[in-house]
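Shipment paperwork, digital attachment
Item: protein structure file
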Amino acid sequence: MSDVEFRASFEGLEIPGSEFRHEDHVRLAWIYLQDSTLAEGAARFCEKFRHFVRHIGAESKYHETITWFYLVTVFERIRTRPEAANWEAFAKSNGDLLDSRMGLLRTRYRDETIHSQRARSVFVLPDLSRDPP
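Attachment content:
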């Protein structure tokens, strides 16, 4: 499915919740952030994603910190890795973002932080050090 078709299918609420995987979340973030500022793309993503989770009855699964962690990281990678100008290239060069076990997230947050109600409802800054470059 092309990016345009994927976005239209998502926005049209045609994708069943059971078929919307972690990689789809990242791809959707990439689509919204590709040609916009972080603020504009993230606002569109969050608006459409919240609409989607309400539609599928999964509002309780929405997690503000995880959402923003991935939005900021995807945006940073788009801007610093211009060789990944299409989704396939981006996905290939950013496998750590597509890890459904969210290993990258776990290198930045303590378990008790990411599992807290506070992190679920508001964005919490990472509380573990970044790996050295």
